[in-house]
Fold this sequence. Notes:
Layout: H1 2-5, H2 14-25, H3 29-41, H4 44-71, H5 78-85, H6 88-121, E1 130-134, E2 137-140, H7 141-157, H8 161-188, H9 195-201, E3 207-209, E4 215-217, H10 220-237, H11 243-246, H12 254-283, H13 295-298, H14 308-317, H15 321-353, H16 371-387, H17 390-418, H18 433-452, H19 454-465, H20 467-477, H21 486-493
Antiparallel strand pairs: 1-2, 3-4
Helix pairs in contact: 2-8, 2-12, 2-15, 3-4, 3-10, 4-10, 4-12, 4-17, 4-18, 5-6, 5-17, 6-7, 6-15, 6-16, 6-17, 6-20, 7-15, 7-16, 8-12, 8-15, 10-18, 12-14, 14-15, 15-16, 17-18, 17-19, 18-19
Amino acid sequence: MQSENNLLKKRVKLFDGIAMVSGAMIGSGIFIVSADIAKKIGSPGWLMVVWLITGIITVIGALSYGELAAMMPKVGGQYVYLREAYHPLIGFLFGWTTFLVIQCGSIAAVGVGFAKFSGVLIPWISENNILLHLGTLNINSTQLVGMLLIVFLTWLNTRGIVTGKTVQNIFSSTKVIALLGFIVLGLIVTKGTGAWQLNKEVFWQASKIGEHNEIIPLAGFALFTALGTALVGSLFSADAWYNVTYISGEIINPKRVVPLSLVFGTALVCTLYLLANFVYIRFLPLHGALNGSDVLARGIQFATDDRVATSAMSVVIGDYAAVIMAIFIMISTFGCNQIMILAGPRVYYAMAKDGLFFKRIGSLNKKGVPAFALIIQGIWSILLCLSGTYSNLLDYVTFAMLLFLTLTILAIFVLRRKRPDIERPYKAFGYPVVPAIFIMTTLTIMLILLFYKPDYTFPGLVLVLLGIPVFFLWRKYNKNIGTGISEEAEEMVN
């Protein structure tokens, strides 16, 4: 294992790491999920609070992850932390869920998202354009373009980490600059729509849209639960920042670079997200009508296809907004898929090295990357594209994602007791208070989801739990189970 690990090429620097964090976070979510949040919370002020809480949770998570990343700078990242802190079973369940749905489902969803916005420029790309009938399975041109994107990026990342990081740097920089340009334009344009005045009048008057589109005022515990459910969309839009930990084995000076990449990348993106939402409420009334005649009448709540950013941009520049935003989101989703496709196979590679995945997945090609793991990930992502069920699967695993995040931050406490001897070049900011705030916040959100969104949470739990018998069966029939990160940890100590 040690000789093979030496083939991993350390080529990733701090700028690359920040680009990977920001690139993984900025997909299409920031441009559309505010519509759903607005329906749930019904107040411009509380909309901003949702995104502020999201930013605080995300940055706190990044500050806390830094300790784990610095003390165990190994390929596989989060999988390694969970395995060492608890048991190989917990690491396996994370890798199982990551491969089965979280990573591959996200890749499929983002790939199809890229294709949908491509359809704004090329009408041939449409879900209504059926290319092939295979029994009950219909393959449309949108699915085809999404799958071709996955194939291309998978091939690209087999060419080596330098190729992958170069492409990531270009697209991450482009979309950060473009998002910043959108914000600056939104802040300096003085064109009045009356939206800001309308929003100020109801700034803290929380409400939600009922089943029959009626407005239901929110206060007290009802407001608290609405906040919890509204956070699901924003947290998902700010997710995937920890993907950079998966490639720790290929980062130059990872004990310093990974923590800094996490903090700078998340702080940058969360600030941009907050400012983008301020632009939304500056140009669009939050409240609207489902059948409104224009973008102002529909407001943020009922923006066409939930494309809030396109509606806000149309107020500023008119009819060209749809095309400009489509190009912007194509760039954004391309870059987002690039880092997810690059990072995910490092988790499967680490699992295979522990004997918890097929042996060949734990091999590297001549370019020093886990090419076979990339190919397997690409195949499963394409199958999810064809199934059309990836969006439902992603809804189901939101709870599981929060669960693993919580367990990872809790691992800081566990490892301080279990392995006090390991060197910690960086220690979690504000320990134990700040990590505890993260844990309590995510636990609260999970409890709210368990009670108020059981249709989404329990399937996710079932998916995770199905991995338990798989783990024990795999361990029973596979005699090559590794001893885990502990041996590597001993190397760090010594």
